[in-house]
Amino acid sequence: MEVFRLARKKYPIELSGKGASIIGARWNSKGTEIIYCAQSRALAMAEVVVHLSLAILPNDFVMLTIHIPDAVSIEILNPTVLKEDWNVFPCTFETPLLGDDFVKKNEACVMKVPSAVVKGDFNFLINPNHKDFNKIKIIGQNDFPFDKRIFK
Questions:
Q1: Where are the domains of the chain?
Q2: What element of type H or E holds 43?
Q3: Model pLDDT for residues 24-56, shown as the tens digit of each residue
Q4: What percent of the chain has pLDDT over 90?
Q5: Which of 56, 124, 143, 150 lies deepest, with the highest CB count within 10 Å?
Q6: What is the torsional sign of CA 7, 125, 18, 130?
Q7: Predicted local distance difference test score (pLDDT) of residue 55
């Protein structure tokens, strides 16, 4: 399976989870390393665009293509565990705890979760502490300039 991630060139182009652990996000608390990826390039872009404006649009994004081998275990989050307002911004405290628990249990390397930005699409969370993490590789990196029309 291929998944996608937008990254900034000013940071090392690697899969580490350290960035997410600094501030926490929808699916992890501060201090929990996790790597956010999307099922498509368009979703990866949408997940980033909701946090940007034309005034602060960096021009150093790259789209990463990440290969997850079929042998890597994937847990699918049961949507019935989510409360009705799980996708509000800023996020409620429940969703980060679900991601934290996924990392702590360390049973699967990847967790499939719904996108809060695009209903019906999915993100994939990678646990960098799992024994199979080293099987997951960046297989592509392309400059990704945003189309300015998105911000009109």
A1: 2-151
A2: helix 41-49
A3: 989 999 999 999 999 999 999 989 887 665 566
A4: 66
A5: 124
A6: negative
A7: 60
